[in-house]
Amino acid sequence: MSRDEMRKIQSIRLKQTVERVYHNSTFYRKKMQELGITPNDIESIDDIGKLPFTTKQDLRDNYPFGLMSSPMSEIVRLHASSGTTGKPVVVGYTRSDLAVWAEVVARCLTAYGVTKNDRIQVSYGYGLFTGGLGAHMGVENIGGTVIPMSSGNTQKQIQLMHDFGANGLACTPSYAMYLAETIHASGIPLEEFQLRIGAFGAEPWSENMRKELEEKLHIKAYDIYGLTEICGPGVGGECECQNGTHLWEDHFFPEIVDPVTLQPVAPGEEGELVFTTLTKEGMPMIRYRTRDLTHLIYDKCECGRTAVRMGRIMGRSDDMLIIRGVNVFPSQIESVILEMPEFEPHYLIIVDRKNNTDTFEVQVEVRQEFYSDEINRMMELKKKIGHRLQSVLGISADIKLVEPRSIERSQGKAKRVIDNRKI
Ligand code: DLL
């Protein structure tokens, strides 16, 4: 599709989306009124800059359903991901939203070369996380066979991958690496597996990691990108050229802005990725700040697809960590520590990658009056905070209780996160 044609479609859909949110969402109507604009001010996609930005904080402030633009009776599915503190970010989908989602994941899979003759093992987590069910719908949409494994239970994953002759694997790149190592350790020859294609995403990964995964598993490893707020996996995916992630811009309009000034950067420059959904009904997003730092490539791709490409995600403009595929904000950990009287508000988060799996340690100072030489009492305390963190974050941390005043005090901005991973 030519750029002009694409922009025509984007313009029509943007106008429809703006009408929809203005008339159906108090939140967006108020935001637009504050800027003194109405849907009549949006005549084409070139007017996108007139619209307000939306942030994770807006989702938190309007938890759980405040940003829906469809009545709840039209919402057929809810998903959620971590917010910056205790409350998750909640997204609602109408039947049509689910159809679009299945379509965009199908586009990714098709670009990887997956067909109805393939069996795809989906080893992203199923549940509120969008990874499992999103990939699942995409495979079904192209008529492939889904093996809905979800994550974990690694031995069984390998056994069924082998016995069912899975041709594709969809999971985080770090879990793929772990699966690869477990396969090698199992002694089953790689030749007995039918794996050909990997659909990896939900966390940053590098070209080196791609090479390693391709060599270890004898596959072609492709990127799949997405975020809960916009729809889940399938906002974009790589093609056979493996040279940038095509964003399905007829459904999700991308912009790159300077994260400080919020002004658009020059074409091709790096900045923060911002999306406006163009076809969503349940919970359309207007200029949603993803916090992902990347750049866009408008040159034609050798595969023939004209959809814009995105470079690798180079980092984030906030402090969100992705640990074992789970989004973790230091502020979530801080709020758990602050609500427990046994601890000082001094902590350190140490993240590393050993044997291709993320390690996650939280060091926290015990208050003098709770500090004890008795191992049992300390173990009890460790368990208590460990459980609390697990229930808030959705993953377990190695807790290290330390003596009062043993964590280095900062002279300026406290450095509370040490991320030693070299991805
Ligand atoms: O991770 C959706 C997803 C599931 C994408 C499965 C791909 C595959 P969230 O949990 O909301 O949604 O996390 C979204 O994860 O803003 C990025 O920072 C990061 N992320 C997702 N995909 C990639 C990728 C899902 N391919 C956040 N490369 C996003 C780098 C990624 N980072």
Alpha carbon gyration radius? 23 Å
Read across the widest sheet, the strand sequence of neighbours is 4-3-5-6-7-8-9-14-13
Strand content: 25-35%
Globally, the shape reads: globular
Determine the N-to-C terminus distance.
35 Å
Bound heterogens, unique = 5'-O-[hydroxy(phenylacetyl)phosphoryl]adenosine
The assigned structural class equals alpha/beta
The total of helices stands at: 10
Helix content: 25-40%
- Largest sheet properties: 9 strands, mixed
What integer is the average pLDDT? 95
Tally the beta strands: 21
Low-confidence parts = none
What's a quick, concise take on this entry?
The chain is an alpha/beta fold. The protein contains 10 helices and 21 strands. It binds 5'-O-[hydroxy(phenylacetyl)phosphoryl]adenosine (DLL).
Walk me through what this model shows.
- By secondary structure, the protein is α/β, with parallel strands linked by helices.
- The two termini are 35 Å apart.
- The protein has helices at residues 3-24, 26-34, 56-61, 95-112, 130-141, 154-163, 173-186, 207-217, 330-338, 375-393; strands at residues 75-81, 89-94, 119-122, 145-148, 168-171, 197-201, 220-227, 232-238, 245-247, 252-257, 271-277, 288-294, 296-297, 309-310, 315-316, 321-323, 326-328, 343-354, 357-366, 398-402, 417-419.
- The strands form 5 sheets. A 9-stranded mixed beta sheet has the order 4-3-5-6-7-8-9-14-13.
- Helix 7 (173-186) packs parallel to helix 8 (207-217).
- It is 31% helix and 26% strand.
- The radius of gyration is 23 Å and the shape is globular.
- The longest helix has 22 residues, at 3-24.
- It has 10 helices and 21 strands.
- A hairpin with a 2-residue loop joins strand 18 (343-354) and strand 19 (357-366).
- It binds 5'-O-[hydroxy(phenylacetyl)phosphoryl]adenosine.
- Residues 81, 124, 130-131, 201-204, 223-228, 232-233, 290, 292, 313, 316, 322, 327 line the site of 5'-O-[hydroxy(phenylacetyl)phosphoryl]adenosine.
